[in-house]
């Protein structure tokens, strides 16, 4: 069972993201256990961009449920779409104090999956440009996928642009 103890809480996650996380869950757990054994007192940082961010976020939910001792966890996601329903977001917000998801300008991916489908973001949104004073953050700036800019999904984030190759 991927998420023991929380299956009856009404938490729902997009199945495609859950399937992707499930494919690597045991390998991530084994690597984390080995690292925690080899280096006592370490904290665990889970970082990812886009789909990698969703997998890292689901690992932030998964790992504490399978580790005998709970180290300090930190999650940072770049260009993170909405992953689950309001109960998922509320559970993550209540159980993980160090969550950050960083959105770049008019990136449209953070407004996916739609709120009208019941998907919600976690707390901890940071926008790279602060020109949007709307309290709705990204949603206030990118009101629909027709307004967003997919090119801004690739960054730059901390000076790094993702998704492009050069020779």
From TrEMBL:
CDD domains: Lipase_3
Lineage top rank: taxon: Eukaryota
InterPro entries xrefs: AB_hydrolase_fold (IPR029058), Fungal_lipase-type (IPR002921), Sec_MonoDiacylglyc_Lipase (IPR051218)
GO BP annotation list: lipid metabolic process
Limits of the Fungal lipase-type domain: 10-112
Pfam families, A to Z: Lipase_3
Statement: the UniProt record of this protein carries the keyword Repeat: no
The keyword Disulfide bond appears for this protein: yes
Keywords tagged on the record: Disulfide bond
Recorded catalytic activity of this chain's protein: a diacylglycerol + H2O = a monoacylglycerol + a fatty acid + H(+); a monoacylglycerol + H2O = glycerol + a fatty acid + H(+)
Family recorded in the similarity comment: Belongs to the AB hydrolase superfamily. Lipase family. Class 3 subfamily.
The protein's name: Fungal lipase-type domain-containing protein
Organism: Sphaerobolus stellatus (strain SS14)
